[in-house]
Amino acid sequence: MAEVAKKTKRSVLKREKRDARQEAAKNGPSVAKLKNVPTSPRKMRLIADLIRGERVNKALNILKYEPKVGAPKLEKLLLSAISSWTAKHTDLKLEEADLYVKDVFVDGGRILKRLRPAPQGRAHRVRKRSNHVTLIVDSFKKTGAEVVTTEKETKE
C-alpha cells in the first residue's frame, strides 16, 4: 500500500507564513509614518526629494537648515525611523551601520473644504490639503561580489 501524505491544515500554513513575515520584518529596514500633516503634498514632496537616497547624517543636516515649513516635521520623522531601526538591530552599532534614507514618499491626505465669501453673494471653495509621509531607513549591505574584489586586491 502506498503511504498517504498527511495534508497540513490551512490555518497552520497561514500561521507559518505570518511568523515568517514577522521574522523578516525584525531584520529588515525600518519604516516610520507621519499622517495628516497640515501642509500640501506638493510642498512636502519638495523637501522629501532633498533627502531621498542620502546618508542619515547628511539628511539630518539638510533638514535642520532647510527653511521650508515641513522640514522640522520630516526631521522628527527621520529621528523616529533611526530610533526604531536601532530598536530592531540591537546587535549593531548605529555608527557602524552606515544608514541611509532608502525611500521617502508623500501621499495626499484628507482635504478640509471651506467656503470663502466672493463678490456678488457667491462663495469660493478653499481646499485645505494635508499629507501622509512614509520614510524607510536601511543600512548599506556588502554583497558577496564586493567582498571578493577586496580580497583579490589585498592578495596582489
From TrEMBL:
Span list, region Disordered: 1-38
Keywords (A to Z) from UniProt: Ribonucleoprotein, Ribosomal protein, RNA-binding, rRNA-binding
Record has Transcription as a keyword: no
Extent of Basic and acidic residues compositional bias: 13-24
Entries under Pfam families matching the protein: Ribosomal_L22
BP GO terms, sorted: translation
A GO MF term: structural constituent of ribosome
GO cellular component: cytosolic large ribosomal subunit
Family stated for the protein in its record: Belongs to the universal ribosomal protein uL22 family.
NCBIfam families in the record: rplV_bact
Role: The globular domain of the protein is located near the polypeptide exit tunnel on the outside of the subunit, while an extended beta-hairpin is found that lines the wall of the exit tunnel in the center of the 70S ribosome.
Summary of subunit composition and partner proteins: Part of the 50S ribosomal subunit.
Stated name of the protein: Large ribosomal subunit protein uL22
